[in-house]
Amino acid sequence: MLYVYSVLIGCAAIATLIQTLRLIWQIEQGYWVYRRPIGYEYIESKGGGKILVPHEPLASIVTEALNGFATGRFQTQVEVQRFLESKPEYPKDKPDGTIRATTITRFLNKPVYAGYVESPKWDVSLREGKHKGLITFAAHQRIKERLKENTLAPARADTNEDFILRGIVSCSDCDRPLTPCWSKGKSGRKFPYYRCYYKPCESYGKSIRRDDLEEQFASIVRSLQPSK
After folding, report:
1. pTM for this one?
2. Average pLDDT of 169-175?
3. For 125-202, where are the alpha helices, taking DSSP H only?
């Protein structure tokens, strides 16, 4: 009986090894072999096996979130988190409709969204994948740089100085915090705005100039001051 168990265990170990080697070979050839990332779905490949393809509407949401962080439209991971939480189609971590901060960090670090694959645990270096990226590799590199910059500089006083009402003002329609952003004019000059990014909201995509909003806020504060 002991001999039979040993043989069974040995066969299972060999099967696991063969499966592992097969997965390593697939990654080396540029195939993603793990659970499909949000924004993709698997379809049968002409050469056999499965390949990732963009899946809408999640693919467009993922692209907007990643490019938004790469370009600075979203200054922090929290803003990326709020953007994704505002999308009803995007999967949430918790029943209350929120996404964990660690999930956002992993999301921003994934090279699969740039059309690349890798497997550090199996010593497979970063390489171009067979699937189509949702962002460019240059955008992915910029995201990595921004994440590194944020790690080296824990606080960014300049951001708060640029938008002093960050986290204070909310959309009048959906009551969600307005997101600070910069818009580039035809001359290349950047202009500061506050905008609603909650898609179901009637004011989705609408923006208000930072200076106008902050002046309105200042007027309200002045009206609340007691007269001498």
Report:
1. 0.62
2. 81
3. 137-152, 157-162
